[in-house]
Amino acid sequence: MFATIRDFAEEWSHESAATQRVLEALTDESLARQVAPGHRTLGEIAWHLVTSVHEILSHAGLQFESLGDDRRVPDSAGTIAEAYQKTSLAALEAAQTQWSDETLRETRNMYGEPWTVAFTLRILIQHQTHHRGQMTVLMRQAGLRVPGVYGPSKEER
Q1: What InterPro entries does the database record attribute to this sequence (predicted)?
Q2: Which residues are annotated as a binding site for a divalent metal cation?
Q3: Is position 156 within any domain?
Q4: pLDDT tens for residues 16-35?
Q5: Annotated binding site, which residues?
Q6: Does 157 map to a domain?
Q7: Is 150 a member of any domain?
Q8: pLDDT in tens, 105-144
Q9: CA-based nearest residue to 76, from 35, 39, 111, 43
Q10: Domain membership of residue 76 as a residue range
Q11: Would you put residue 36 in left (φ > 0), alpha (ψ -120 to 50) or beta?
Q12: Cβ distance 156 to 38 under 8 Å?
Protein backbone atom coordinates (compact mmCIF):
# COMPACT_ATOMS: atom_id res chain seq x y z
CA MET A 1 0.00 0.00 0.00
CA PHE A 2 1.12 3.55 -0.55
CA ALA A 3 1.57 5.84 2.44
CA THR A 4 2.36 8.93 0.36
CA ILE A 5 1.66 10.30 -3.09
CA ARG A 6 5.42 10.47 -3.53
CA ASP A 7 5.65 6.70 -2.94
CA PHE A 8 3.07 6.16 -5.67
CA ALA A 9 4.80 8.61 -8.03
CA GLU A 10 8.11 6.79 -7.69
CA GLU A 11 6.62 3.37 -8.33
CA TRP A 12 4.32 4.60 -11.11
CA SER A 13 7.26 6.21 -12.87
CA HIS A 14 9.12 2.90 -12.88
CA GLU A 15 6.11 0.75 -13.81
CA SER A 16 4.73 3.04 -16.49
CA ALA A 17 8.21 3.23 -18.07
CA ALA A 18 8.25 -0.58 -18.22
CA THR A 19 4.81 -0.61 -19.83
CA GLN A 20 5.97 2.06 -22.27
CA ARG A 21 8.94 -0.09 -23.32
CA VAL A 22 6.64 -3.04 -23.98
CA LEU A 23 4.23 -0.91 -26.02
CA GLU A 24 7.06 0.62 -28.03
CA ALA A 25 8.20 -2.88 -29.04
CA LEU A 26 4.89 -3.59 -30.80
CA THR A 27 4.48 -3.36 -34.56
CA ASP A 28 1.34 -2.59 -36.50
CA GLU A 29 1.32 -6.16 -37.82
CA SER A 30 1.58 -7.66 -34.33
CA LEU A 31 -1.57 -5.94 -33.06
CA ALA A 32 -3.83 -8.65 -34.54
CA ARG A 33 -2.05 -11.48 -32.70
CA GLN A 34 -4.24 -13.42 -30.25
CA VAL A 35 -3.67 -16.55 -28.21
CA ALA A 36 -6.85 -18.19 -29.56
CA PRO A 37 -10.02 -17.17 -31.38
CA GLY A 38 -12.34 -15.15 -29.18
CA HIS A 39 -9.55 -13.83 -26.95
CA ARG A 40 -8.26 -10.26 -26.91
CA THR A 41 -5.70 -9.41 -29.54
CA LEU A 42 -2.35 -7.92 -28.65
CA GLY A 43 -3.67 -4.57 -29.88
CA GLU A 44 -6.79 -4.86 -27.74
CA ILE A 45 -4.74 -5.62 -24.63
CA ALA A 46 -2.36 -2.75 -25.39
CA TRP A 47 -5.23 -0.31 -25.92
CA HIS A 48 -6.91 -1.60 -22.75
CA LEU A 49 -3.76 -0.62 -20.85
CA VAL A 50 -4.11 2.90 -22.25
CA THR A 51 -7.81 3.34 -21.51
CA SER A 52 -7.88 1.57 -18.14
CA VAL A 53 -5.59 4.16 -16.53
CA HIS A 54 -8.28 6.80 -16.95
CA GLU A 55 -11.15 4.41 -16.33
CA ILE A 56 -9.82 3.23 -12.96
CA LEU A 57 -8.54 6.55 -11.70
CA SER A 58 -11.53 8.62 -12.82
CA HIS A 59 -13.76 6.09 -11.05
CA ALA A 60 -11.76 6.95 -7.92
CA GLY A 61 -12.39 10.67 -8.48
CA LEU A 62 -9.24 11.80 -10.30
CA GLN A 63 -9.86 14.21 -13.16
CA PHE A 64 -7.75 14.19 -16.33
CA GLU A 65 -8.31 13.78 -20.05
CA SER A 66 -9.55 10.45 -21.39
CA LEU A 67 -7.92 9.28 -24.61
CA GLY A 68 -10.67 6.89 -25.66
CA ASP A 69 -12.37 3.66 -24.75
CA ASP A 70 -11.72 -0.06 -25.25
CA ARG A 71 -14.05 -0.30 -28.24
CA ARG A 72 -11.99 1.81 -30.65
CA VAL A 73 -8.58 0.19 -30.89
CA PRO A 74 -6.14 2.11 -33.09
CA ASP A 75 -4.49 0.14 -35.89
CA SER A 76 -1.15 1.83 -35.24
CA ALA A 77 1.25 0.57 -32.57
CA GLY A 78 2.85 4.01 -32.50
CA THR A 79 -0.49 5.65 -31.77
CA ILE A 80 -1.07 3.26 -28.87
CA ALA A 81 2.40 3.87 -27.39
CA GLU A 82 2.01 7.64 -27.74
CA ALA A 83 -1.43 7.57 -26.12
CA TYR A 84 -0.10 5.54 -23.19
CA GLN A 85 2.72 8.00 -22.63
CA LYS A 86 0.24 10.89 -22.56
CA THR A 87 -2.25 9.21 -20.25
CA SER A 88 0.37 7.86 -17.83
CA LEU A 89 1.93 11.32 -17.46
CA ALA A 90 -1.49 12.98 -17.13
CA ALA A 91 -2.50 10.48 -14.46
CA LEU A 92 0.67 11.10 -12.48
CA GLU A 93 0.32 14.87 -12.69
CA ALA A 94 -3.35 14.68 -11.69
CA ALA A 95 -2.59 12.45 -8.69
CA GLN A 96 0.18 14.79 -7.54
CA THR A 97 -1.97 17.92 -7.86
CA GLN A 98 -5.46 16.69 -6.94
CA TRP A 99 -4.73 14.20 -4.17
CA SER A 100 -2.80 14.44 -0.92
CA ASP A 101 -1.29 11.85 1.37
CA GLU A 102 -4.52 12.02 3.39
CA THR A 103 -6.56 11.21 0.26
CA LEU A 104 -4.84 7.83 0.08
CA ARG A 105 -6.69 6.74 3.22
CA GLU A 106 -10.12 7.77 1.88
CA THR A 107 -12.51 5.08 0.71
CA ARG A 108 -14.20 5.03 -2.69
CA ASN A 109 -16.87 2.74 -4.12
CA MET A 110 -14.85 0.87 -6.72
CA TYR A 111 -16.80 -1.67 -8.75
CA GLY A 112 -19.23 -2.31 -5.91
CA GLU A 113 -16.55 -2.64 -3.22
CA PRO A 114 -15.06 -0.14 -0.75
CA TRP A 115 -11.41 0.46 -1.70
CA THR A 116 -9.05 3.02 -0.24
CA VAL A 117 -7.42 5.29 -2.80
CA ALA A 118 -4.06 3.72 -1.86
CA PHE A 119 -5.46 0.25 -2.65
CA THR A 120 -6.87 1.55 -5.94
CA LEU A 121 -3.43 2.79 -6.94
CA ARG A 122 -1.93 -0.61 -6.06
CA ILE A 123 -4.58 -2.37 -8.16
CA LEU A 124 -3.85 0.00 -11.08
CA ILE A 125 -0.20 -1.03 -11.03
CA GLN A 126 -0.97 -4.73 -10.62
CA HIS A 127 -3.45 -4.50 -13.49
CA GLN A 128 -0.71 -3.09 -15.72
CA THR A 129 1.69 -5.85 -14.65
CA HIS A 130 -0.90 -8.54 -15.36
CA HIS A 131 -1.54 -7.32 -18.89
CA ARG A 132 2.16 -6.74 -19.63
CA GLY A 133 2.67 -10.43 -18.88
CA GLN A 134 -0.07 -11.40 -21.31
CA MET A 135 1.44 -9.15 -23.93
CA THR A 136 4.94 -10.58 -23.67
CA VAL A 137 3.66 -14.07 -24.48
CA LEU A 138 1.82 -12.79 -27.54
CA MET A 139 4.83 -10.70 -28.53
CA ARG A 140 7.06 -13.78 -28.57
CA GLN A 141 4.47 -15.68 -30.60
CA ALA A 142 4.46 -12.76 -33.05
CA GLY A 143 8.25 -12.91 -33.33
CA LEU A 144 8.87 -9.61 -31.54
CA ARG A 145 11.77 -8.83 -29.26
CA VAL A 146 10.51 -8.53 -25.70
CA PRO A 147 12.09 -5.73 -23.67
CA GLY A 148 13.23 -6.36 -20.12
CA VAL A 149 10.91 -5.24 -17.37
CA TYR A 150 12.39 -6.51 -14.09
CA GLY A 151 15.83 -7.17 -15.44
CA PRO A 152 16.90 -8.25 -18.91
CA SER A 153 14.66 -10.43 -21.04
CA LYS A 154 15.93 -13.54 -22.80
CA GLU A 155 16.26 -11.50 -25.98
CA GLU A 156 18.48 -8.94 -24.25
CA ARG A 157 21.05 -11.42 -22.92
Answers
A1: DinB, DinB/YfiT-like
A2: 48, 127, 131
A3: no
A4: 999 999 999 999 999 999 98
A5: 48, 127, 131
A6: no
A7: no
A8: 999 999 999 999 999 999 999 999 999 999 999 999 999 9
A9: 43
A10: 5-142
A11: beta
A12: no
